[in-house]
Amino acid sequence: MTPDATIFADVTSPDGYLLVLAVILPVIGILLTMAFGGQYVERIALVLLLAGLAVAIAILAAVLRNDQSLVYVVGNWRPPLGIALRADGVSAAMMMTIAVVICATGLYARGEFGQPDANVSTRGSYAFWILLLGIWSGLNAIAVGADLFNLYVALELLTFAAVPLVCLKGYQETIKAALRYMLFALVGSILYLLGTALIYGGYGTLDISLLAARVQPEPVAFIAAALMTTGLLAKTALFPLHLWLPPAHAGAPAPGSAILSALVVKGSFILIVRLWFDAMPSLLTFATAQLLATLGAGAILFGSVLALRQTRLKLLIAYSTIAQIGYLFFIFPLASGDSASTPWASIAWTGGWLQLFSHAFAKAAMFMAAGLVAEAVGHDQIPDLGGIGRALPVTVFAFGLAGLSLMGVPPSGGFVAKWMLLSATVMEGQWWWAVIMLVGGLLAGGYVFMVLGKALSTNGSLTLRVPIPRHRQVIVLAVALCAVLLGLMPLQPSGLLMIGRPEMHINVLE
Amino acid sequence: MTNAGTLLVITLALPLAMLCACLSERLRNRMHLALALAPLPALAAACFEADGSTVVFPQVFGLTLGLDEPGAMLIGVAALLWVTAGAYAGNYLRDKPNSGAFAVWWLMTLTGNFGTFLAADLPGFYLFFTLASLSAYGLIAFDRTAEAKRAAAIYVGLAVLGEALLLMAFVLMAAGVPSGSLLIGDAVASLATSPWRDYAMAFLILAFGLKIGLFPFHVWMPLTYSAAPIAAAAVLSGSAVKVGVIGLIRFLPFDSAMPDWGGVLVIAGLFSAFYGVVIGITQANPKTVLAYSSVSQMGLLAAALGMGLSAGDSSAVLVAAFSASFHVLVKGGLFLAIGVVASTRRSVWLVLVPAAVLALGLGGLPLTGGALAKLAMKPVMGDGIVGLLATLSAIGSTLLMLHFLRRMWSGSEQTEIAEAPALVWPWLATALAAAVLPWMLFSSVTYDSLRSALAPAEIWEALWPVLLGALASLALWRWSRLLPRIPAGDLLAADKGLVHLASASGAAMEKIDEHLREWPVASALLLGLAIILSVSTLVGR
Predict the structure, then answer these.
(1) Residue A19 backbone class (left: φ over 0; alpha: ψ -120 to 50; beta: rest)
(2) Would you call B456 exposed, middle or buried from its count of C-beta atoms within 10 A (0-12, 13-18, 19+)?
């Protein structure tokens, strides 16, 4: 008898087509641009951004309304023969975050990559809008992917759309940074693909829910899981595999940096969670969870201290990203503990995802604010930014709000996430992660106030090279406010993030 | 929302509305004229809503506001000080180019300050506590001198540390509540039986101890109060510090005796009480002297609360709140007095005579609020060694206050503190309130009648430490040259080593990071990580 048949009862849900739309709308945009020519790219992209936002809202509404996952079985061929797209509560929330950040970045980027003269197509803006749409499609595909090979394709789409974003300006050092990024990401892809091949050889399927039932703790699974995870860690730039991140994220144009730091690194992180919690829950041991979180702790300490030592604003923000990624990995030891009935019902599950969402908003706002500052004064050397607070008050305010979220100061999503993760350390008796989180918060306070203190000081004569229009500053503020609004959630496990999660308990070995 | 809680909401809504008005540059630049209006709803709330009525906002993470008796007492006097200091600040800011920024920081600190007195749930308290702490940064750094910048940097570093400690304390407290409720009352009630009781207590005492400047966390106080503009120093030392006092009052479980933790508070508090005096008398700047006096006074308060905690005596709560209320007005008032003396050439006696009465009140001069505070505190402190030390600290306080008066007097001939011509009435109003209010509040905190406070025996008992202090201060005048010159922030003078260590370890981490980001190293790590990960899935199977 096959246990698969009972576990897997996926049929396309009434609103399932929305998932297809979420993935292919951006691709349609790319095709339209090719058909109509580059001079229309901005307008086409903006229309599609709005459409994509509407789709994300519709998906979130459908998941909330039905209180279960949204499924689309492509061509009605059920797995393992066919492939399925599936959006559970986490995917829906993720796609909503993606949509908001991408739309805001798109509006913001009009100032940099806009096409005021509709008859001219410039290479930079053409590439930017295409890449933005490509990244969106890749991220959505990761969010709804239910099969490891599908996810691989989505991941590659994401990587290949992200790399050129780094060197859009065409300076030599950004090209070098992009190459670094690409090479390391490729190594990651190869490792992931290798693991996928082993899995397929061993279990005859790549569908995540089928794997969950089939994978046994045996050598082929150990090796496959290690290879895939390592590959994904390289793409997530988890310490100590972060060599490519600072130059790439600091070198990209501001809207690009915002997307890369806020969203792209999270794509591979989502996959790691899917791997250990969904596809191979029987493999996650206490030691593995501790190992992943240890790397996270290293990221927090190194990333934050290095951020404190930067003199360039964008590099500081990039190192802060390395640190903030570290917190995400606390989800492994803290959500897999035994104080809740299932990992999804644990406070750490909600805390971990909330950290991801709020960091996405906060970091996007920070990079966009840094971009406005750099545009206005022509550089981003922190020691020479004295007085920028008077010149660009809204921008600096937005930067400050985002910074407070990174520090975990209320009201902000960062605070709620930190509270939840700290609560989990207390419940699980893993106090050592609490120490790291508190130290990380202190260091974050250090680098945030380092910038704010400079920005608010009045000595130093600062003249703006170009005036910054008010509406661009307001966009940055709106994104930062999203991080603040997440802080209004109640301090308990979120029902949305439990929707569509399997009803099983992971028994972590201690 | 019940009708009863409306004033509580307005208390926070008015300053928030004024902050929103600051978005308009025109209004922002005139906002300093309205600063004295912002605390008025708080004053009304203290008078009319001290009946424990609460307001809940379920849509904002369950924020709950409420006002109990100690909270009402503190928010009432705090509001008075914010009114007078606000009027003083409005005058001080008249011709300042960046008065708008000052007004914004002021209103934010005020909102946070009042919010902590009102908050009845853990996240809400934390929100306002943080708002008050971090916004004070802008007030301290306002003068932009190198001294102000250093003070602000040290202040914000310690403030962020305090927040981290408090966050941990709250998380531990919340984890111990079986029902999952986040109300402060429920958290404190389950603290005694919580499995994390001792950890929670340790973090609570550290966090609030830092806020009220218990040794060795007091270092930020002298720097901050010396660097901030007078009006800001007045509200920070008078009112903002009481955020830590209300914290201890609200969160320590006075219903269950905890001799260990009570003892810790008593020892730390009494040590600070004397330490503040010893360092304070070596200081020349009157603002710094007042700051050390705060260290000393807050230490005494902590000791009183510690005695209450040891004995499981919840009457200590009201006594501490009463004593803290007196300190709000005296400390705030004396800072305003410094400003008035420094800018007024005429009628100095109008300042010095009331200032002398107020200042000596801290030493317990009979018929002042300070004497009432000491009288109320006496049963809490007991007759033992702690009671004796508390009496001795009154001698120290007198000595320190006489030193302050002398420094303020000679400061009036110097110009270093001089700001724009200061308003005199805010100072006089604060002094009047400090003289009168304790008499009105006294009967609500103790069973003693006012008559007992006027008994000759009590008067003598309050008088002799003051007389001894006066004698000691004659000796101090005579031999003050022999005292070492200790820089403000005493222990911080030794921070060079720490700074060096921090920057050296930072540089070392930067070096390591450089190596980690080399290709060969990173590739080796990648392979190594794959191997370790696959091994880790085997461990423990």
Answers:
(1) alpha
(2) exposed
C-alpha distances in angstroms, A371 versus A395, A403, A461, A475, B305?
A: 10, 16, 20, 13, 51
CA-based nearest distance A172→chain B, Å: 19
The strand pairing partners of A86, in sequence order, are A71
**Distance separating alpha carbons of residues B172 and A431, to the nearest angstrom:** 11
- CA neighbor of B539 nearest in space, from A228, A329, A290: A290
Per-residue confidence (pLDDT) for residue A503, from 0 to 100: 65
CA distance B121 to chain A (A): 12
B194-216: per-residue pLDDT in tens? 899 999 999 999 999 999 999 88
B413 touches chain A (CB under 8 A): no
Return the ∠ at Cα A261 (arms to A257 and A265), rounded to 5°. Answer: 130
CB A307 within 8 A of CB A242: no
DSSP B143-196: G--HHHHHHHHHHHHHHHHHHHHHHHHHHHHHHT-TT---BHHHHHHTTTT-TT
- Reported as a pLDDT band with limits 50, 70 and 90, residue A493 is confident
Cβ contact, residue pair A306, B525, below 8 Å: no
Among A221, A407, A491, the residue with its CB nearest the CB of B182 is A491
Rounded CA-CA distance B410/B351 in Å is 14
The DSSP string of B90-155 is: HHHTTT-TTHHHHHHHHHHHHHHHHHHHHB-BHHHHHHHHHHHHHHHHHHHGGG--HHHHHHHHHH
Whether chain A has a CB inside 8 Å of the CB on B152: the answer is: yes
> Are B506 and A309 a contacting pair at CB < 8 A?
yes
Sign of CA dihedral A338, A339, A340, A343: negative
| Residue A128, helix vs strand vs coil | helix
| A35 pLDDT higher than 60 | yes
Residue A84 has φ and ψ, to the nearest 5°, of -120, 150
Burial pattern B152-170, b for ≥16 Cβ within 10 A else e, equals: bbbbbebbbbbbbbbbbbb
ipTM given for this complex: 0.89
Cβ–Cβ contact B363 with A under 8 A:
no
- Chain A window 444-483: which residues touch B at a Cβ cutoff of 8 Å? 445-446, 449, 453, 456-459
3-class DSSP state for residue A10? coil
Min Cα separation B11/chain A (Å): 19
What does the alpha-carbon distance between residue A192 and residue A187 come to, in Å, rounded to a whole number? 9
In this predicted model, what pLDDT tens digit does every residue of B266-304 receive, in sequence order? 999 999 999 999 999 998 889 999 999 999 999 999 999
Residue A312 pairs in a beta bridge with: A381
What's the rounded Cα separation, in Å, for the pair B482 and B284?
14
> Looking at residue A510, what is its pLDDT?
42
B160-196 pLDDT, tens per residue?
999 999 999 999 999 989 888 889 999 999 998 889 9
What pLDDT is attached to residue B112?
A: 95
| Cα B72 from Cα B114, distance rounded (Å) | 10
Nearest residue to A307 via CA among A451, A190, A175? A451
- Where b means 16+ CB within 10 Å and e means fewer, A357-367 reads bbbbbbbbbbb
- At B384 the three-state DSSP class reads coil
Phi-psi region of B52 (alpha: psi -120 to 50; beta: other; left: phi over 0): left
Provide CB contacts within 8 A for B500, sequence distance 6+: none
CA trace torsion B446, B447, B449, B454 (10° rounding): -60
List all residues 6 or more positions away from B488 whose beta carbon is below 8 Å from its beta carbon: B222, B223, B226, B283, B285, B288, B291
Q: Please give the helix or strand (H or E) that residue A71 lies within, else none.
A: strand A70-73
**pLDDT score of B165:** 95
pLDDT of residue B460: 86
- End-to-end CA separation in angstroms for chain B: 56
